Amino acid sequence: MNKHVVKVLEAKFITHDVKKFVVEKPEGYAFIPGQATDVSINLPDWKDQLRPFTFTNRSDSNYLEFMIKLYNDRNGVTKAMGKVNAGDELVLHDVFGAIQYKGPGVFIAAGSGITPFISIFRELYKHNLINGNRLIYVNKTSEDIIMGQELFKMLKKNFINVLTRENTIGFVGKRIDRKFLIENIVDFSQHFYVCGPEDFVRDINKHLIDLGADISSLVFEK
Fold first, then answer.
1. C-alpha separations of 177 from 26, 157, 168, 180, 182 in Å
2. Which pLDDT belongs to residue 93?
3. For the chain, what is the radius of gyration of the CA atoms?
4. Within the chain, which residues score under 50 in pLDDT?
5. pTM of the model as a whole
């Protein structure tokens, strides 16, 4: 397992509980948009505490970027990440991940499950290949939406926001269930990209297969 100690160049909150980290990119370090790496904090108590985080920058950037949801109610890595700032060091490991772009389709994300898709969309947008893709993004409230303005700029009418705990003008207030998928997806023979909590991914995949999606067209972290 390769380890790379990198300096944090920028650290700032982008929502009430999500912090963006921009770090140095090691020489020759490469990833495919949608992939992740294990990250630890380069401090004696934390350097062996690895957690997987997805890259959110484009693959051709000269830096690496992560958007990390902090869980301050748990005394773990993400809470400690809240104290990491510019000048501190992180340890990156090998790149891994099954999520990568296979062709136009529907992206379905819950909460911080949007992160692998941000990198994919940024790459597609740069190369004018984003048309034909749709995003269904579910959060509890509008305050939880990560990079909402940029996603809207890239996807426009193909960006569907779903809020489960509030009804706000411009947002759909409901859960993503079988009925929602039937109402919002016409073609189940296309690619589907699914990311979020484990039970969310499992339930969405089950609904999609029940509705005629081919299991080989589902892209998710196994």
1. 42, 21, 19, 5, 9
2. 96
3. 17
4. none
5. 0.95
